[in-house]
Amino acid sequence: MSGRALLMWDDAVTGYDFGPSHPMDPVRLALTMGLVRALELDRRIEVVAAKPAGDSTLRLVHRDDYVAAVRAASANPADADQSYGLGTLDDPAFAGMHEASALIAGQSVGAAEAVWRGEAAHAVNFAGGLHHAMPGAAAGFCIYNDASLAIARLLELGAERVAYLDVDVHHGDGVQAAFWDDPRVLTISLHEHPRMLFPGTGWPEETGGSGAAEGSAVNVALPAGLGDPGWLRAFHAVVPELLAEFRPQVLVTQHGADTHFEDPLAHLAVSLDAQRAVQLACHGLAHEYAERGRWVALGGGGYAVVDVVPRSWTHLVGIAAGEPVAPETETPESWRHEVYARTRQMAPARMTDGRWPVTWRSWEDGYDPADRLDQAVLATRRAVFPLRGLLA
């Protein structure tokens, strides 16, 4: 397998634009790519573009009638069919919606194909990670579920074990639903508790379908207000053991940046330093447990579009490229000028929140029955670990 890494990018992905008042401002993508270039990471990772996902690819996950509805809304936004989740407050219809959504999906599918075929060890599509879209409906700012499509293409190419790890603040419900009855796919989602946050799913008792698929879904419902030590404790208390047992051929990860304490749509208190720590951990887990280190890394949510998202995903690109950006690195002056020119906001001056190194208490250090986080972790371990032959 080639040791190279790919960054999937096409300027046209910024056409995924729900309008000026929508939280998912595509400037977050443009500013991320701008920061990647300003730090010259594009010289250390191969930047490539894939074709948009065609109908035969979209049908791997999405229903024909839904794709037809997206096409119709894309051509005539005013006539969007809300029964498909289109033309709503969360997912307003816009001209060219099908084309932009299919392009993002194509980048994730192309990343998966390249990694499976040995053309690259790692591939990143930070425009992807649109994990809420269902087979027959848009949801949560997501039209086509590129993560599910990438996994489905891996299965189509012959993969027998794919692990999907989602650390977005919102539950990875669309990916879980797509593979609920498929034991070839292990989905793991760490997210804010469903009582507190959209989509209201992701309870520890959601453990997959019946038969061989039982135990193929893993959900860690995190208490609101959780900060760096607790977030990392939960991650390391659940993820490594499951990946060691499952031994995926490919690890697909979703890195929504909306766990950050500045994100306006959620209630966790995680820093950029902790997000970077999890990205590094995912890279290490891919090399330790995935076949030949195969790793596909996607973006996701994140609505602090200047202060958080570009820095978080630029760290992800650097890690995949084998050139991690040091936490103390200052953001380049040229990028700060770009931020101001595009947004009239002041850019952050350094690449993290200054909390490196981030420390946490391992699960082996003991369970505290009065701690809400430990209660959440234990609920997950008790629900799913025995189904996978592991001790809770």
Automatic annotation (TrEMBL):
Q: In which pathway does it act?
A: Ketone degradation; acetoin degradation
Keywords in alphabetical order, please: Acetoin catabolism
Q: Which Pfam families match?
A: Hist_deacetyl
Record keyword Nuclease present: no
The keyword tRNA-binding is annotated on this UniProt entry? no
Q: Domain named Histone deacetylase: which ranges?
A: 22-317
Hey, which family's this protein in?
Belongs to the histone deacetylase family.
Q: State the name under which the record lists this protein.
A: Acetoin utilization protein AcuC
